[in-house]
Amino acid sequence: MVPPALTRLAKTVHAFAVETRGVFLPIAGFMLLILIVVAGAGTDFGRAILIRARVAAAVDAAVLAVARDLSVKIMTDAEISDVLNKSFQSNLTSLNLEGVSMGNLVYTIDPVEGTVEATATANVPTTFIFMGGIGPKTIPVSVTAQSTYSLFDVELAMVLDITGSMNTNNNIASLRTAATSVVDILIPPETSESDSRVKISLVPYSQGVNLGTYAPLVKNGNSPYTPCVTERMGPQKFTDATYNFNGQSSNFFGGGTTKCPSQSPLRPLSANAPALKTAINGLVAMGGTAGQIGIAWGWYTLSPNWSNLWPSASDPESYGKDKLKKVALIMTDGDFNDFYDLVAMNRNTCNFRGQRSDSTEAGWNFHDSRNGFYWLPDRWLGGGCLNGTNSYWQGQYFHDAGYNDQPSVRARRLCDAMKEKDIHIYTVLFAGSNGPSSNAETLMQYCATDPNTSYFKATNSQALISAFQKIANQIQSIYLSK
């Protein structure tokens, strides 16, 4: 709307300019009008530039909103239009666009290249340049934005450290928030399981992994007292070869500890966001750190060789499938310090290594060569030590576990094998107030697919949450291309 004072001024100048009773006065009046228009043109064009920038921000936000959704779920044309326009209008309402006439938002989707493009037009009213009929009443502006979106389906294994140290400063609560944010980004609220392009498995670990209802089949009655599993034996130890379910031997051991973790079972691949978030919210920290076991079971949830163990809805796709990403997110807050072996020993050694007075660490027999201790879960859950030489699953814990001790060595072997299967590994080291050792940092950098872009070090709770969110956004692979 033109201010009344300017309207009166324009009429006066125009009347002055067309006055024919003099020679100089009409020329002077016309020149005065030109001067006003020229001087005011900067204001008109400046406002048009400002409005264009504001509309551009709204279009950018709209195409990014659609790209985020297209990256993680299947959408109809109506759903795309709805998300695009709602985001665009929501951003416009916060802008000062009084008097601006907006055209329809026009968009195109390229499912081959994976791009979404939108164009918005607006007519910005002028205040000065239309005076005397010299210039237009509006200045048209047009904005186009384009964003890429991921063309890949995703299988993500979240391998999460919920050992006793995560109780420090209530770090376990920060981990719950961080893991939940990954689910919210990759499986947005109200996304149906059938439409989701992302499936996530949850693999909490401490001194082992709790397989829950899947344990009986894997263990085949071997140490049936808990749902816990630890390490694999034999030539398959660092492979994803199909588990042995022939009724003879499972090649796994049920951990024999209440810190396996007992309250936080593994969940195979799922697009059921509420169920995943409920499981994450129930994570309880306890026990030592057998991170290599968590890594192995994270791999098994992504391996097509393990499809028969999981429900059909959780079956991993084949390796090398077109437009499929298999991803592992491995998180720890310190050194890996627990490991297990099937060890042959006589009854005296069994009794020595398996003795304990209570269920605390102090009750286990201290290690005979290192700062740590042994325990024999078989010894206490399976009827004690037998006469003669027999094989028992033996756990070992090191207070000062190093990079070249078995937990880290085995973790590196597993990470190497996963990378050979083209599984992209992200790692997160959560450095608490005391800070983890350099061993933990070196291990996480080693396991990451790219230590520069796929390894994150979080020094506080907010940094942990931010690292998880950055990983989720990297998995989405969206960006404004123009």
Walk me through what this model shows:
- The protein is α/β, with parallel strands linked by helices.
- The chain is 37% helix and 20% strand.
- It has helices at 4-18, 24-72, 77-92, 171-186, 215-219, 273-281, 291-302, 347-354, 377-381, 406-420, 438-447, 461-476, and strands at residues 101-102, 106-110, 115-125, 138-148, 153-161, 198-205, 209-210, 228-229, 267-270, 324-332, 338-345, 372-375, 390-398, 424-430, 455-458, 479-480.
- The strands form 4 sheets. A 6-stranded mixed β-sheet has the order 9-6-5-10-14-15, with helices on both faces.
- Strand 14, helix 11 and strand 15 (455-458) form a beta-alpha-beta unit.
- Helix 4 (171-186) packs antiparallel against helix 6 (273-281) and helix 7 runs parallel beside helix 10 (406-420).
- The longest helix has 49 residues, at 24-72.
- The two termini are 34 Å apart.
CATH superfamily of the largest domain: von Willebrand factor, type A domain
What is the CATH class of the largest domain?
Answer: Alpha Beta
Beta-strand residue fraction: 15-25%
Counting H and I runs of at least 4 residues, what is the number of helices? 12
Mean pLDDT: 83
Q: Name the structural class.
A: alpha/beta
Looking at the structure, the CATH topology of the largest domain is Rossmann fold
Q: Rounded to an integer, what's the Rg over CA atoms?
A: 33 Å
Strand order of the largest sheet: 9-6-5-10-14-15
Distance between the termini: 34 Å
Helix % is 25-40%
N-to-C SSE string, H for helix and E for strand? HHHEEEEEHEEHEEHHEEHEHEHEHEHE
- How many strands, what sense, and barrel or not for the largest sheet? 6 strands, mixed
